[in-house]
Design a protein that fits this description.
The chain has helices spanning 14-26, 30-33, 56-63, 75-84, 101-106, 124-137, 164-173; strands at 46-50, 67-71, 90-93, 110-116, 138-150, 176-185, 194-202. Strands 3-2-1-4-5-7-6 form a seven-stranded mixed β-sheet, with helices on both faces. By secondary structure, the chain is α/β, with parallel strands linked by helices. Helix 1 packs parallel to helix 4 (75-84).
């Protein structure tokens, strides 16, 4: 849901499928998924998990000592997450991209921003709007990790092809440095689906 109670376009299809998605999402392990960039994780600090889904990654970060703000705009997924991962180190927030209005209004910056399978739900205009907000929320020296899906769009979902090179250029133009880029096959074995993983560091000092 958005701040005015309306569903965000990128959440289309997730509410009705939430019960079926839980087992699939929870079958993946954070340490396996993010193995290529685990060495780039900041030390304990504040983390923002955008599109936190069932809470798998937020819980993994909390276990590593992060104070996690988990953003999930789909209430059905958020309820599952709060049931499955009741760690005291997680604060759940009903908010979403491109504006992250509630997170930004609360103030503060984050040492880590994580977006797993989120960015491709935004169209080009929304991505252009969202990227500066992410930099605004990222502490100097903070890290931004994202995984981006490519391939067939499931029925009832809203997804877009994200050209990776222009994204990297846009990120670099506003002070992010690319630390890692990786391409990998779908961990759930879905035909035609591949992923790109990107890790950035905020070089802005203010």
């Amino acid at each position: 849901m958005s701040q005015d109670g309306k569903s965000l376009p990128g959440t289309q299809g997730y509410g009705t499928e939430a019960d079926d998605l839980v087992e699939r999402y929870e079958s993946l392990v954070f340490e396996d998924l993010y193995r290529p960039v685990l060495a780039l994780l900041p030390g304990q600090g504040r983390a923002l998990d955008i599109g936190a889904g069932t809470g798998r990654d937020a819980a993994a970060l909390a276990r590593r000592g992060f104070r996690v703000h988990a953003v999930e705009p789909t209430p059905e997924l958020r309820r599952h997450a709060q049931r499955l991962h009741a760690e005291p180190g997680i604060v759940w927030i009903d908010d979403g991209l491109p504006d992250l209005a509630r997170v930004r209004a609360a103030g503060g910056r984050f040492d880590l921003i994580l977006m797993t399978a989120v960015w491709m739900h935004l169209d080009e205009g929304e991505r252009s709007r969202a990227l500066p907000h992410l930099v605004e929320l990222l502490a100097p020296g903070g890290r931004l990790f994202m995984t981006i899906r490519k391939g067939p769009v499931p029925a009832g979902r809203r997804m877009f092809l994200v050209p990776i090179d222009p994204l990297v250029s846009q990120a670099q133009a506003i002070g992010l440095t690319l630390l890692h880029r990786d391409e990998f096959a779908d961990r759930l074995g879905r035909e035609g689906v591949t992923w790109t993983m990107l890790a950035f560091e905020n070089k802005n000092r203010v």
